[in-house]
Amino acid sequence: MRLWIGTALFVLVALVLLPVLWMVGTSFWSPAGWTLAHYREVIESPTTKPLALLFDTGRVAGSAALLALLLGVPYAVLIARVAFPGRRLFAALTVLPILMPPIVHAIGWNYAEIPLFDWWGNSLVFALSYFPFVVLLTVHGLRQVSAGMEESALLAHSPLRVIVSITLRNALPGILAGALFVVIFTASDWSVPDYLYFSSQRAVYLFPTEIFRWWQRLGQPEAACAVATPAVLITMLLLGGIMLLRGRRFASVDARYRQPADFQPGARGWLGTLFCTIVLGVSAGLPLFALIRAAGSVSIFPVVFADVKEEYVNSLLIASGAATFMVVLGFFIAYAIVRFRPWLSRSIELVSILPLAVPGVMLTCGFIRLWNRPLPVFDEVYTSIFMAILVYTARFLPLAVLALTAVLFRIGPALEEAAAVGGRRWSASFFGILTPLAARGLWASWLLGFVFTMKDIDIAAVLPSANASLSMRLNNMIHFAHDERAAALCVLMVLTVALPIIATLLIAPKALFGSDSGAGWEGVR
Question: Alpha carbon of 434 to those of 267, 307, 399, 418, 428: distances in Å?
Fold first, then answer.
């Protein structure tokens, strides 16, 4: 066990902690030694304005989270606890907005001739992209509310009041955790503010856009790191909030726990169908329809595919490799978090989720500063596709770790202990007992890594070995006004990301909705 877990933790430190520390250290370093000159340069810059940057980032991220709550919480209550026509279909389609990169949402709305300007346009795009986080975590909390609590309250109050005062109150940690995820992903995205500025010429400078400007356009990596460091510290506080919320019980679950019965709206069930239809139609259907219409003839799709064939293959290789690497590494890390002593497991978990606190643009800059060196080994790795796999693995490793930690908590240590008593080696019980039991969760985590890697554009815009990807090709088409081709490529990207999930739903739906997948959907009947 020590060899396997020790190797995984060593890779974790090298892959996650070292680039981040290198990036932060760069902001305090100059050829003359330690200095605060880079921070002074950023503060005194007439274009950066740190307080305005912090305010705009908080305004966009906070507004996106609020709108995501307004959409996600009612949607979660409906698919988890209310019997209405089409419930299972809407539960399965919840992930559809996440399959579309945020920039594809923005492009779709632009092609639909719905103007998105200033901070509210950014907030709207991010809310419609990420509200499924709120849905998933709220459903998880709703499932753990005991039937006894609701039944007692229903004797004196209406179902609506019970849902608000009892059910949602007990699911509050999950709701808040979902909102914090929306804030974190919004505050770390570069592509949407960049695209909306390009299309409307109305700039909204968030931390990622300012980091990119100092790094790429001004050619001052030390100042870019100085801009990023405060953003990392703030996001770490938010991640600490998520960790505290995950440590709390979502509801009162005890030995007398019973799954609560669904609320029966009767003839008013069509209202649930209408609400879910509107939410999915606005968040995914409208931009996707606008993209298909903008692409024009069906004949353009083979032309575009032939044109981007090399980038398509590269993207599949990078996404598949990164998803595989992050699942293997994440499984061992999750095991250490679940089985090690509390103080050690918390330290490991803190390091493993650190990439969520770092904007993708800045994490990539840290890897570049660390690996771009005139040495044969470093040069071979830096210029190869393996470098892109490493960066994407580090970027989205927290998602795999969080999902697989939930899986291992559900399985528990009893079977391993029984195998140890029977004389089986740890490796035999880990690979022969634990891995098969966690197979659904492993596959769901792989899909999660594949989806987020395929649709990411921030890393591809900075890392040379990831430039030949679909997301970067899309970025070039947008800036060179190839509207029909860009629309067709957007649809192609969405279909590519959706295919493995659709295949899983058709062949083995329990891999996504089963009890060990970590998704928290077991109560959706």
Answer: 46, 44, 20, 12, 9
Distance CA 474, CA 489 (A): 7
Q: Say if residues 142 and 520 touch (Cβ distance below 8 Å).
A: no
pTM: 0.87
* DSSP one-letter string for 396-456: HHHHHHHHHHHHHHHH-SHHHHHHHHTT--HHHHIIIIIHHHTHHHHHHHHHHHHHHHHH-
- For residue 314, give both structure tokens: 């590269």
CB 365 within 8 A of CB 462: yes
In tens, the pLDDT along 251-300 reads 444 445 556 667 777 778 888 899 999 999 999 999 999 999 888 888 89
The CA distance from 444 to 423, in Å, is: 32
Q: What is the pLDDT of residues 506-517, one digit of tens each?
A: 776 665 555 433
Which one, of 457, 241, 466, 209, lies nearest residue 357 by Cα? 241
pLDDT at 247: 55
| Ranges in the chain, pLDDT < 70 | 144-160, 201, 245-261, 481-482, 508-525
CA atoms within a 13 Å half-sphere pointing along the CA-CB vector of 322 = 33
